[in-house]
Every structure is written in structure tokens, then in C-alpha cells.
Design brief:
Shape: globular
Strand content: 15-25%
Distance between the termini: 54 Å
Radius of gyration: 22 Å
Low-confidence stretches: 370-382
Largest sheet: 7 strands, mixed
Mean pLDDT: 89
Structural class: alpha+beta
Length: about 375
């Protein structure tokens, strides 16, 4: 199926139903009927927690659920007793979307890892799936096919803000135990900077799982693992630009099994972030291939969103990145310059329309209309 082809509205509707059912099911599976939800105020904001009686000695075990002001979570909290899992129905939906709509399904090991971490509470604890496995979700989210060549991966990347990991006062089970339930051959890869902790785990089949966090400290922190209290003993690698990527993630479903509800970056942030990192890979052994893949993913999402007339969404993400400083602007300029002339022209046109729609001047973002060679050779009026 060609990239950028719109999905039939029937399949878009089925996917929306799957998202709804999957989130419903995540509540029924994660929270037992003998517990109760409570709203707790922390630093002036209210959050839902789930209390269950301790098996011995009285008292309550408390688990973090999410912000009270998230309408999707609060709606399900209020209707908790009425929710029913529909596993077989969701499996049929996933099968239809994969076999009839030709939407991408992750490799079995990738789907199993994401599902294992989901059941262990990673997304409940406001973690975000990033990287190519997240990219596999966007065709359904956008209702358009994306470049299949950019779907292949042997890695799964998971990100969380450090301050969230500290603040929520809850944790997943030990990460290595969770991964070994998927594949007993998973092992820790000790950090080169601090061998006492691990940010990466690898199976005998060489499938990599890595945890990341935004580097919001000095450049000295680069490469040094950051302790993450919510991640079951795992640390995370600090990365620049990641705070931009995982801010305000969206809900999606990975088409594995009966559907795995996940949080992924918004597609416009994902695309702009790939423009940035695609121009900055300089030290990886396979930097050229990774850079090409980054830029292919960015282009595919941008073309899909352009076809959906979502130019203002792309422009909003673009201008936020552009306004963050010289390093960001240089990376974006460098990456855009690597594309063919037709895509560059289309991208600038759509971004200019979006920027203008947002009430800003496109000229302030290098988006002013450029002169053709013929026009440039004509003497300018004095």
C-alpha cells in the first residue's frame, strides 16, 4: 500500500473504538474490585490514587493513577465498577486493522515488551514510548499510511521525566523481573559511567530495551545515568531535546495482541524532534543510517499531517522548537537542507501557512518566500 494513502473511515472508526476499549480494559486489569480510588492533593494539584487493603497487619497499599484534571482518567474512575474487559472483541479489532487495513504490527518481542511494561504500570506512571515502536502507532493515529521502510527496529525506548519519577511516590516492580517474564534471557547492561546501575537491557536475541530521561542539567550530566525511583531499579540515560519530545504525550494503541494502550509523543513533536536529532548524529557507528531513518520518519509524518490539513499543528511544534535557541535552529536548518527541493518547498509553504494562521510572521522563522534564480538575477529597484 502506498505511503500517505488515507485509511478508509471504517478503519479509522474501528481504531477509535479500540483506543476506548483498551483504556477501559487497562483500568479493569490494573485495579482490583476490593480497592477504591481517592483524590489526593499534592502541592496544590489533585491526583487520583488507588488504595487496596494490605494482606496482613491492616492499612492500605496506595498506587498512583493520574491527574484529576485528566478527563479520560477521571471518567473511568467514576465509572470503574461498570467497566468490563472485552479481550476477544479487542483482538478481533486488532486483527481487522492489521489484516484488512494493513496497519503496522510490531515485532512480537517488541509488542510483548511494551505490553509487559504497560501491565507493570509504566504508562500509568506517566512514562512515554518513544522511538520507532512509537512511530508504528502514528499511521492509525493520523488515519494515513506511513513509510514502511522506517518501521524496522530491534530496540524499544521508554522515557520519563525525572521530576515525575521522583514526585509520584510509586514504582513498577523490578524491571529485570518484568522483562524476564517476556524473555528469560534478558540481562542488564551496566552503565559505562557507573557500573552499579543500568539504563539498558538486552536479550540473547539482541533486542534492546533502553530507558531515557530529559537532560535538564548541565552538559556534564551527558552520558551519566540518572536514578529513576519509579522505574523499578532502572536508571535512565539523560538526553538533550527529549523534554520537548515527551511534553504533552497522546494516547494511542500499539497493535499487538488485544491492543496495548500506550502514551506516545504527539506526531507533530515527534516529526520536529526527528528533524533535530537527524542532523546531530555524529558519533554512532551507524550514524548515517540512523540519520536517514530519522529524517524519513519526520518526512512521512509531515506529509501525512499536511494531507490532513494539520499545518497549524506542525507549525506550532516547529515554532516552539525554533524559539528554543540557536542550536535548535541550526539543527532544523541543517536537516531541512538535506531533503529534495520539492519537499523543502512544500514544507516551507505548509509551515508558513501554519505560522500565519497562528498569528506570527513566517519571515521570523526562515519561511519568507524565496526568490527564483531568474528573479534573483534581475536588478532590484532603488
Amino acid at each position: 500500500m502506498p505511503a500517505n494513502q488515507a485509511l478508509d473511515i471504517t478503519y479509522q472508526t474501528l481504531y477509535s473504538e479500540l483506543v476506548q476499549r483498551s483504556l477501559d480494559e487497562s483500568f479493569t486489569s490494573e485495579f482490583s474490585s476490593n480497592g477504591r480510588f481517592v483524590a489526593v492533593e499534592v502541592k496544590g494539584k489533585k491526583y487520583w490514587y488507588f488504595d487496596t487493603p494490605k494482606p496482613e497487619g491492616g492499612g492500605q497499599d496506595r498506587r498512583y493513577v493520574g491527574p484529576v484534571n485528566d478527563p479520560e482518567i477521571t471518567k473511568r474512575v467514576e465509572a470503574f465498577k461498570d467497566l468490563k474487559a472485552d479481550l476477544k472483541g479487542r483482538r478481533r479489532l486488532v486483527s481487522t486493522l492489521v489484516r484488512e487495513a494493513y496497519l503496522p504490527r510490531p515485532l512480537p518481542i517488541a509488542g510483548q515488551v511494551v505490553e509487559g511494561l504497560a501491565k507493570a504500570g509504566f504508562f500509568r506512571l506517566r512514562g512515554v514510548l518513544v522511538g520507532t515502536v512509537a512511530y508504528q502507532c502514528y499511521a492509525a493515529v493520523l488515519g494515513r499510511r506511513l513509510e514502511a521502510a522506517a518501521m524496522q527496529t530491534g530496540d524499544a525506548h521508554f522515557a520519563q521525566f525525572h521530576e515525575i519519577s521522583v514526585a509520584i511516590k510509586d514504582s513498577m516492580p523490578p524491571i529485570l523481573d518484568v522483562l524476564r517474564q517476556v524473555d528469560p534471557t534478558f540481562r542488564e547492561v551496566p552503565s559505562q559511567a557507573d557500573g552499579r546501575v543500568s539504563t539498558r537491557f538486552v536479550s540473547r536475541g539482541n533486542f534492546n530495551v533502553e530507558f531515557l530521561t530529559p537532560n535538564q542539567w548541565s552538559d556534564d550530566q551527558a552520558g551519566k545515568p540518572v536514578p529513576m525511583p519509579a522505574l523499578g531499579g532502572a536508571a535512565a540515560s539523560p538526553l538533550r531535546f527529549l523534554d520537548y519530545l515527551i511534553y504533552h504525550p497522546i494516547r494511542a494503541v500499539l497493535l499487538h495482541g488485544a491492543g496495548v494502550p500506550v502514551l506516545v509523543p504527539s506526531p507533530e513533536r515527534y516529526a520536529v524532534h526527528k528533524l533535530i536529532v537527524g542532523s546531530r548524529r555524529k558519533e554512532d557507528r551507524d550514524a548515517t543510517a540512523k540519520s536517514a531513518k530519522d529524517r524519513l520518519q519526520a518526512r512521512s509524518i509531515i506529509e501525512a499531517m499536511t494531507a490532513n490539513r494539520q499545518h497549524a499543528d506542525i507549525a506550532s511544534a516547529f515554532t516552539e522548537a525554533w524559539n528554543r535557541g540557536d542550536q535548535w535552529r541550526a539543527a532544523i536548518r541543517t536537516s531541512i537542507a538535506t531533503y529534495d527541493d520539492d519537499f523543502q518547498s512544500s514544507l516551507r509553504t505548509e509551515l508558513a501557512k501554519g505560522v500565519a494562521e497562528l498569528g506570527s510572521d513566517p519571515a521570523g522563522y526562515d519561511l519568507a518566500e524565496r526568490l527564483t534564480d531568474g528573479e534573483a538575477s534581475q536588478p532590484r529597484p532603488k
